[in-house]
Each structure stands twice: as C-alpha cells, then as structure tokens.
Fold:
Amino acid sequence: MRPRSSLALLLLGAWLLSCVGVSRSPDAPPNVILIFVDTLRADHLGLFGYPRDTSPALDRFAAESLVFRNTTAQAPWTTPSIASALTSRYPWELGYANSRPPAVLSDEFLTLPEIFAANGYRTGAVISHLLIGTKLGFGQGFERFDVANAQGHQHISSPSIVERAQRFLNSFHDVPFFLFLHFFDPHYAYMLHEPYDYDPDYAGRLDAGVDQPELLKRIRSLSDEDMQYIRALYDSEIRFTDEHLGLLLEDLRKRGLYENSLIIVAADHGEEFREREALHIGHSSTLYQELIHIPMLIKLPGSTEGRVVDAPVGLIDLAPSIVETLALQVPDGHRFDGRALPLREPDQFSQLPEAPIFSETRVRGKYLQSVTLGRWKLIVDHRAKRKSLYDLESDPGERNDLAASSPEIVESYTELLAEWTEDVWQKREGLQLRPAELDRDEIEKLRALGYMN
Ligand SMILES: [Zn+2]
Structure:
C-alpha cells in the first residue's frame, strides 16, 4: 500500500473513532470530568426542592449520582474555594489573606490535576474567569488550559465552554483524561436568557444585565419587586447553564463516555440577595448558608444508581475522595486536610464520624470564620467581635441567633475554631507567597468587577 493511502486510512480510522467514541476495556482507568458552576446556590435547584424548574438536566443527572445534600464550601468566593477543592487544604493555609487580586497558588501544593498527570492521565481545563487563571497558579498539572472565556461578567460563556470541552474530548481518546470545566453564567451580572423568563410581568426600573456594583449603589432603594426580578434573572442564568450542562452530558453519552466516567458537578459558592441587615447582593464577605451551602453531585464510573447522602461534607473532602476511589498514587506522606469519603460504599455514610467543617473569608477588611458540626453552626466575625450561633436543623435560613441563650455551645465551638486556626497557622509557617503578575488590562478588568481592594 502506498504511504499516502495508509495515512488516509489512519486518518479515516481516527475520524471514525472520534465519531463513535472508543470502547475501552472495562478495566481501563475511568475518565474524570470535574465541573464547577460558579455562584450556584444549592437551594435554587429543583433537586434541592426549589419550586422553579431551574435544573431539569441536573435533576436527571442527580437521579444517577450521589447527591450530597449538605456540602459546605470552604470560602464564599471563587479563588480560595476552588483552590481548596483542588488541593484539600484550607484557604488560609494556601495563603489567601486580605489581598485582591489574591497571591499566586504556590507550587508547593499538590493539586488534583498534578495528581492525575502523575498517574498517567491527560489533563485539560476550560475556565471562564481570570481569578482561577494560570497567572494565579491554577495551571499547575494541566497539559492544556483554555481561558478564551475569561472575559468579564456580561460575557455569556456556557455554550462556548461546552464547545471547547468537546474539542478536548475529540482529542482525548487513547489514555484516561481529567477534564476540569468551569461554568460562569450564574455569576453576576444577571442576564436574561429567553425563553427562561421567570418574571415576565416585571415593570420596574431595573434592566437585565445590570452589574453588581450598580445594584449595590441602589441597594437601599430596591423594592421587593426589584429583588424578585433580580432573583428571577439569577434563575434564568441557572436554567440556561443547566441547558448547556445537559447538552454536555448528552454528548458524553453519545460518545460512550458517560457510563464509565467519574463525573462531578459542584459549585464554588452561592449568592446572597439582600437577605440580611448588612444589605448585600453578591458574595464573598459573609458565611451564611446562602453563600457556603453548595450542591455536590458525584456519578461513579460504571454506576447510574442515584443516592442521597445527608452526611455533612466539605468541598475540601473532594480531592482525597477522588484519589481513594480511583486508587491514584500520591507521594508518600502526602497530607490532605479533608477526608476520603466512602463513595463506593454509600451505606457507610450513616456511620461516618461527625467532623467539624470550617470556612473562612478575609476580603475587604473582613475576617470571618465558621464551623459547622452536627446541627449547630457558629460564625465568628473577628473584626466586629461578634459571634452568632444557628441551629441549622430547625432554622436553615439562619434567622434566630442563639448565641446569647446557648453560651456552652458557643464556648465549645469557639474552642474548635481556635484549635483549627492554630493548626492551620502551624501548617502555613514558612509559606512563600508571590503576588500575581497581572497586566494593566487584567487589573483594570478586575477593578471594574470590584475584585481589587
Ligand atoms: Zn465564584
């Protein structure tokens, strides 16, 4: 056969494989797709009981996944939350202090993509915000890193994230891959996506797409109707993102990649809509449930069995759980701060020992920490010198501060926080941080978005 025709045959073969998907041996290591949806409140999803139909695709995916109903993010904004998930270290240990833009994620931390790369996986990322870009250290371990959609708050990115994910899928077919996808549309500015208009009769002064700094300027004068409209726009963004997540999951099925992949869908944090006295719309500076209660869905390879897990877990548990489930090798003595969850034996969740789950934020001059253990959650605002205690079982909306009437619980949870803070402080000792080297255009972009102190 002439060389040219054998090349043509090879190309034809490769094309056919990319069309039909590759049937891999059942013993091959599973592919892994980790999807983060930015700014996605758990309680705005159908699978968490939300009355609007914001999440039909995720609801279907949930029916074939482990659904963690009580997952806490370790920080209420993007960079520290996602860094914490990828390293299983707490934000302060990683160096996220009161500086924005944040320092670069240090090379000394082993990230999930680095673990996959060292275990023979191809690795790729498609992200949609500078705050988890290569200049902030998030490229570690990724062979390919697509930032084409990091274009600001009004940029609609879900269709492009899916299209770019498909480019990766077209090229990853001989070895297992780890694909990290970051969807951004539910983040402000809140856009209206036809046909998902949940407040078509709104006749107020706000336009869809108004950005958060503008909303904050007007926050005291916003009427209840305005707030309803803002929530409706946020829901429209969720529904639109869900539609594209659904297309991606459907595409994985068509490629024969769905069944045998480990697929995770989670959020980095939620969003607040002026629920509190400290009037705010957005995220990052409080630790109430609307910001740190996030969805986490995990579909195991070779399984489409749905299961609800009520045990409280943290995003910080994600990396060790993946490592243990897939039996990935990590260097001797490597330490995760989170726990390896028994994903393959969900019956064990009911016997999982209770462990305190911590979160914190240090932005805009604030310094808050929280700890959740059992039904109780303590929030300490160190600058305001205020402690609030909530019973999440009877008061999931955190309306009744019980700190004054339950001093013993406040004392013991304060002690938990103090021990944890001391532990993280010791682990952090000697950490060398490097400021992000952003160009003028990137700094201006972040400033316009309110991300510079
Ligand atoms: Zn975020």
